[in-house]
């Protein structure tokens, strides 16, 4: 005799958890790549290079986003994670119920006033030229206001629209912060150029690299295979057998970036940079 009945319920908790982790990881990886791309674009454009032309790998670009992970960012991320659990933590810590109730009321009031926060972010955008280099705070404030107003009682279309706009604002803020960080790193590299890896280029023929400031050029004589020696250069980056070099005293506004292809006509020698300008 065959026993009939409803099939046993299948546990989907583990599968949902895996899907959540994979989706979150994918979004986080994409955000890392975007931030790294914006960082590299700002950094290399300072030296009049296109980051895409350097042939950087996905990993190279994504890892650059780690430059954004500073102590304030880590503190903000940790606060965002534990924020929903604060009432429970306060209860377990023995905080009086009255204080917790006031805290919940304050949070509810802030959530109800979220349009004012969004308006403040919009005002910051209107004042764009005057809030630089902290313009990234404008979309961040708008995103925070939209997320505060993201309640379960709102219509589904409204929650979806608010979440989409908040996500776009956060991506915009991350991109601007990454670009600002890349620009600052480039300016720091210019100021401390003498500390970077020193480069000496030996060439069979005279190279068309000159300028003021420019490299120190020496003619070693007709009997030498590598007759010309170029020094007082610093390495910016090396990619695909190309060396991107800057002369000592390089200035962003006026001076060129040299590109030397590593072939049989040249020999490139690398030395430690000067650790002191004195």
Description:
By secondary structure, this protein is an alpha+beta fold. The protein has two domains: 17-190, no CATH class; 196-271, no CATH class. The chain has helices spanning 13-45, 58-63, 71-82, 86-92, 97-112, 114-126, 137-148, 156-191; strands spanning 198-203, 216-219, 228-239, 242-247, 258-261, 266-271. Strands 1, 2, 3, 4, 5 and 6 form a six-stranded antiparallel sheet that branches. Helix 1 (13-45) packs parallel to helix 8, helix 6 (114-126) runs antiparallel to helix 7 (137-148) and helix 7 (137-148) packs antiparallel against helix 8. It starts with 12 loop residues before the first helix and ends in a 7-residue tail after the last strand. The chain crosses the membrane at residues 21-41, 61-83, 110-128, 160-179. Keywords: Membrane, Transmembrane, Transmembrane helix.
Topology:
Elements lengths: L12 H33 L12 H6 L7 H12 L3 H7 L4 H16 L1 H13 L10 H12 L7 H36 L6 E6 L12 E4 L8 E12 L2 E6 L10 E4 L4 E6 L7
Antiparallel strand pairs: 1-3, 1-6, 2-3, 3-4, 4-5
Helix pairs in contact: 1-8, 6-7, 7-8
Keywords: Membrane, Transmembrane, Transmembrane helix
């Amino acid at each position: 005799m065959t026993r009939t009945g409803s099939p046993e319920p299948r546990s989907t908790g583990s599968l949902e958890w895996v899907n959540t982790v994979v989706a979150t990881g994918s979004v986080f990886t994409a955000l890392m790549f975007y931030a790294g791309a914006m960082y590299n674009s700002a950094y290399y454009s300072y030296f009049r290079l296109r980051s895409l032309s350097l042939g950087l790998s996905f990993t190279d670009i994504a890892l650059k986003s780690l430059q954004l992970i500073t102590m304030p960012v880590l503190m903000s991320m940790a606060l965002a994670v534990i924020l929903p659990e604060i009432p429970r933590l306060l209860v377990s810590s023995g905080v009086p119920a009255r204080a917790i109730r006031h805290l919940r009321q304050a949070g509810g009031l802030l959530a109800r006033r979220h349009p004012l926060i969004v308006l403040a972010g919009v005002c910051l955008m209107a004042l764009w030229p005057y809030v630089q280099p902290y313009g990234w705070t404008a979309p961040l404030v708008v995103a925070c206001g939209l997320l505060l107003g993201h309640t379960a009682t709102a219509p589904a279309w409204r929650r979806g629209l608010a979440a989409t706009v908040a996500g776009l604002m956060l991506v915009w803020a991350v991109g601007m912060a990454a670009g600002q960080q890349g620009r600052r790193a480039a300016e720091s590299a210019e100021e401390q150029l003498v500390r970077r890896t020193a480069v000496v280029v030996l060439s069979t023929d005279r190279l068309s690299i000159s300028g003021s400031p420019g490299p120190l050029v020496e003619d070693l004589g007709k009997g030498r295979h590598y007759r010309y020696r170029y020094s007082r250069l610093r390495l910016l980056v090396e990619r695909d057998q190309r060396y991107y070099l800057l002369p000592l005293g390089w200035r962003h506004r006026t001076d060129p970036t040299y590109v030397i292809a590593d072939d049989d006509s040249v020999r490139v020698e690398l030395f430690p940079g000067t650790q002191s300008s004195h």
